[in-house]
Amino acid sequence: CQPLTGKVLPMPTMSAADDALISTFGRLVEAQSALGRQLGRSLEQECGLSHSAFEALLRISRSDGGQITMSALAQQVALTSGGITRLLDRLIAADYVTRVPCATDRRVQYAALTATGKGKLEHASGVHARNLRQVFDGFSKGDLEIFDHLLDKLRGSGLDDGGPSDLGHGARGC
């Protein structure tokens, strides 16, 4: 055993990359990615729909009057304007969606479900709900209520407004 020399060793400094919030966010991204792959694969195999197509059908059906503008739909399903156009073209070709012109502004078009699209969504929703029940089987009702509350809180934090981000202002940047 060596005697203590009285030297003070420097404490290792914590890197910004070790920030606990970065790890938390990484786990959120990993969980979302794994769930998206697993649930998307099931929707594709059992219903012939990609996860993005299912989300688009769902968002259209839940919109006021059962129709939504292309830009609002693109934002809700996190696609670019080109990406939503390609997705809607496929859904229109499958007779799941139709374009409806705006009565007051001819530049605006809405997406609306067809009868075939409503049937496809109903079938896919049953498959998706069953799969989600399996995924969340180990969660208590209280766990799910807390999880839902936290997701609402995160969603309401202003990150989804589509405008310029205030994040990073005042910092030196990358």
Map the helices and strands:
Blueprint: H1 20-47, H2 51-62, E1 67-69, H3 70-76, H4 81-93, E2 97-101, E3 109-113, H5 115-135, H6 141-155
Helix pairs in contact: 1-5, 2-5, 3-4
What are its keywords?
single chain; 174 residues; mainly alpha; 3-stranded antiparallel β-sheet; 6 helices; 3 strands; 55% helix
Average pLDDT over all residues: 87
Record field, number of beta strands: 3
What is the subunit organization of this protein? single chain
Compute the separation of the termini in Å.
47 Å
Give the helix level as a range of percent.
55-70%
In percent, how much strand structure appears in the residues? 5-15%
Strand order of the largest sheet: 1-3-2
Rg measurement, Å: 23 Å
Order of helices and strands: HHEHHEEHH
Low-confidence stretches: none
What is the 3D form?
elongated
